[in-house]
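Ticket #4471: complex job returned nothing on first submit. Input attached below:
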Amino acid sequence: MAQFTLPKNSKVTEGKTWAYPSGAHDVREYKIYRWNPDDGKNPRMDTYYVDCGDCGPMVLDALIWIKNNIDPTLTFRRSCREGVCGSCSMNIDGTNWLACTRFIADTAEPATIYPLNHLPVVKDLVPDLTHLYAQYALIEPWLKTDKAAPERERLQSPDQAEALNGEDGKGPAACILCFCCTSGCPSHWWNGNRFLGPAVLLQAWRWLADSRDDATGERLDNLEDPFRLYRCHTILNCTRTCPKGLNPGKAIASIKKMIAERRS
Amino acid sequence: MTQKHRLSSFDRTQGLGSAREGVRHWWMQRVTALALIPLTLWFAASLIAYIRDDYSVLILWLRNPFTSVAMVLLLTALFYHMALGLQVVVEDYVHNDRIKIPAVAVIHLASFALAAAGIVTTLRIAFGE
Amino acid sequence: MAGNDRPLSPDLQIYRPQLTSVLSITHRLTGIALSVGSLLLVGWLIAAAAGPSAYATLHGFLASWLGLLLLLGWTFSLFFHLCNGIRHLFWDAGYGFDLRTIYASGWAVVVISIGLTLVAWIISFGMRGPHP
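Support reply: We reran it on our side without changes. The output follows.
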């Protein structure tokens, strides 16, 4: 049976409440998922109070403020702090987004922060993405062609380039592999061991749509599978949650169309 | 979940390779859905019109050749669409193969049996005395 | 080995219900309800074929409060699954994927299916007055 409830070792308990910043005026409450691999306990929700007058405007700024001022053990991934690297993806107030592009002003009070959904937790807000990267490798995300390399670039017309970049810069090639979409997909929760999920399928489409790639048929053979592709039921949580405004749902529909068209 | 970690991620993803099929199920689900749009609208409208009438009026309606044909088409499309849909639900939530595979078979067999029952009954009414 | 006791991060327990996921699971639930209802459809045909008294028995049950409740549920299930099914067919053809359209079409499905259910029941009761 699909596991609708969390396993025993994953059930979240109440955690501790950390110090209130004295003298601060603009204080907001944060409930944050914590798990320490070294203490043998279940995950817990800790409560922090952040002095928003003393930190930047984004949720990532609040997390960094907590780490610098209140609790240096709070662990999370981060890098570019401008929404292009995909490191700080997490579940904020129930939906997945990048912490560095979510304004504190747009969060609930108290704000609740969890790691990306239905993934093994390494520590606190850091999920284990190994399986997702393995699924990405499965679609062979590189150019496959037997044509000899030209002297300069393999040229594309503006339309051909637009298929990858999107007319508004939000095409499949713009994906930063933050996995907000995949971890928010109920089909991936119940069948993630075999269903590739929206992020990987968006990239599969990126290579199917690339005019320079010659392995389209082979790629489609690899995808046409009741679980790898067809666990997608167009729930569309993916498109709803993408912090870069991309459309994995539409890309997956395009893959299904391509597969249907090649047999008619 | 802890057991799954003993397999490498590669094993868990590759499995037995792509089945290289799946589009037929997807396509037939859509084709039967298209057929069901006019058929269910006709059926719903007919029910609203006839459900509270006398038995004799109802039987007259059921004996009408157009009704018989439409009913047979409805039953065919409906039970095929239902079998395909329920199969997907079972595949989504049941992961124990020893339950899942027989369950999918039963779904298809039962749907066929129900369709047959409905169609035969419709024809009996149509050609009856 | 450290990797073996990692907890699984929460999913259904904490993910915010949104129009996308709620309409999708409703589509599935109405489909399952209609599957159960298909048994009634076959039963109804068999009762009709069996003769007036068999039919009257079934009809009597359908006119009871439980029967009417079930019929109401099946009516809504039918119209919702039909309208949302059409929405799905547009997606399958490649249309309607931008977020604004997803939400607009979703709300349209909710409103139209509730509307059709009400219309069906009002007409049904209105045509012949209250059931004897």
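Chain B touches chain C at residues 1-2, 5-6, 30, 33-34, 36-37, 40-41, 44, 48-49, 51-52, 55, 58-59, 62, 71, 75, 78-79, 82, 85-86, 89, 114, 117-118, 121-122, 124-125, 128 (CB under 8 Å). Closing as resolved unless it happens again.
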